[in-house]
From TrEMBL:
Pathway: Cell wall biogenesis; peptidoglycan biosynthesis. PANTHER family: UDP-N-ACETYLENOLPYRUVOYLGLUCOSAMINE REDUCTASE (PTHR21071). SUPFAM superfamilies: FAD-binding/transporter-associated domain-like, Uridine diphospho-N-Acetylenolpyruvylglucosamine reductase, MurB, C-terminal domain. It catalyses: UDP-N-acetyl-alpha-D-muramate + NADP(+) = UDP-N-acetyl-3-O-(1-carboxyvinyl)-alpha-D-glucosamine + NADPH + H(+). HAMAP family: MurB. It comes from the Bacteria. This is UDP-N-acetylenolpyruvoylglucosamine reductase. It is an enzyme of class 1 (oxidoreductase). One of its GO terms (biological process) is regulation of cell shape. Its EC number is 1.3.1.98. PROSITE patterns: FAD_PCMH, PROKAR_LIPOPROTEIN. The gene is murB. Belongs to the MurB family.
Length: 356
């Protein structure tokens, strides 16, 4: 197990605290009581028990790409470093079960499978973060969600270190939602996932200009999962800022899902408003469009702003405070509710506390 190895020496928090600045893609300074990176599930269990004995709180993080960290986290922070991957083909070789541990980078998993010709996860290429965090908000992109391919997952209780498997139904997946944002929030560590993939060609190219990109790349040949993944990467790279260059946590707000009657009334006033009817009859709106209509795309407020290509992405230019970002998020929410009567819900998880 690697111990409290990340940077020390920032001003706030007790002397023995550790910096989490490198652990969140927004890049805000934050500190926690202590930190560990267990390199096996058994080492994680030992750490859970030690934290319990010390009567401290334990928070699990992954790549920090869906987090807004407040300056002080009064907790032990654990980042799983176990990342084993096994692909077990079925007897006829036409499908496979993928066993992957929490610490593996999600994008690495997608590219390993796509380059070996397995279909399933290719539309989810380039989503930052770790496999253990993927079920938390049921990651999704380009018409595919994790839940479409998850068979089951294993969780470890943060109370007593015991492990159990949960079926897909038990995870209560929804749009950017699961039981891990509700009843089980911060109560379990997701240790490993089992996913299904197939050799049967199942390209899903109905979003953006994936069809054009893939057909250009294949020049008449049938598409491959790798060609689809590369088309997704090219599309995303054009639209989304790279967190290594510009601090961000991806989409800052969920696309609101509203009753059909409310959307009809809005369409009377805004006929051009993009809207997507869902299987249950509700209608999803594009939060980015609503924000753009409020004239906020590309605005800058000191050290933070709204990305000029993508109104859903709040960015940190560096050197700022998390309070600036939260003030901008409140400004966006107020503008959208005033103009459209629609309340936006924040997507990244808020962790920690402001100093007294
Ligand atoms: C540029 C960019 C693009 C993005 N695009 C997309 C996208 O297209 N679709 C999408 O769905 N998301 C997207 N995201 C959001 C983010 O990448 C995903 O939500 C990702 O799954 C977060 O993984 P992480 O390891 O960084 O989690 P973290 O941010 O570290 O953690 C997120 C939450 O999960 C919890 N958690 C983390 N690991 C575990 C674990 N092993 N067990 C229990 N709890 C855990 C944490 O406590 C926290 O509450 C994007 C983010 C960025 C920065």
């Amino acid at each position: 197990m690697r111990g409290a190895s990340i940077g020390r020496g920032e001003p706030s928090g007790p002397a023995s605290s550790v910096s989490l600045a490198a652990c969140n893609t927004l890049g805000f300074a934050a500190r926690a009581r202590s930190f560990s990176e267990p390199d096996s599930i058994e080492a994680a269990r030992q750490q859970v028990l030690a934290v319990q004995t010390a009567n401290e709180r334990l928070i699990v993080i992954g790549g920090g790409s869906n987090l807004v960290l407040l300056p002080w986290l009064d907790a032990h922070v654990m980042r799983p470093a176990f990342d084993a991957l096994t692909i077990v083909p079925s007897q006829d070789g036409l499908s496979a079960t993928v066993h992957v541990e929490a610490g593996r980078r999600w994008h690495d998993l997608v590219m390993t499978l796509a380059s070996q010709g397995w279909w399933g996860l290719e539309n989810l290429a380039l989503i930052p973060g770790c496999c253990g965090a993927a079920p938390i908000q049921n990651i999704g992109a380009y018409g595919v969600e994790l839940a479409d391919h998850l068979l089951r997952l294993e969780v470890m209780s943060l109370e007593d270190g015991s492990c159990r498997w949960m079926s897909r139904d038990e995870c209560q997946f929804g749009y950017r939602d699961s039981i891990f944002k509700g009843a089980l929030e911060h109560r379990v560590l997701i240790t490993r996932l089992e996913l299904s993939v197939t050799r049967e060609a199942t390209p899903r190219l109905g979003y953006g200009d994936l069809v054009r990109r893939v057909s250009d790349a294949m020049s008449g040949e049938l598409p491959t999962p790798l060609a689809v993944a590369n088309a997704v990467i090219a599309t995303r790279s054009e639209k989304l800022p790279d967190p290594a260059v510009l601090g961000n946590a991806g989409s800052f707000f969920k696309n609101p899902q509203l009753p059909a009657g409310q959307v009809e009334a809005l369409l009377q006033r805004y006929p051009a408003m993009p809207h997507f009817v869902q299987a249950d009859g509700s209608v999803k709106l594009a939060a980015g469009w609503l924000i753009d209509q409020c004239g906020l795309k590309g605005v800058r407020r000191d050290h933070v702003g709204i990305h000029s290509q993508q109104a859903l992405v709040l960015v940190h230019f560096g050197g700022g405070q998390v309070s600036e970002l939260l003030a901008l998020a409140a400004e966006v929410r107020d503008a959208v509710v005033t103009r459209f009567g629609v309340t936006l819900e924040q997507e990244p998880r808020l962790l920690g506390a402001m100093p007294d």
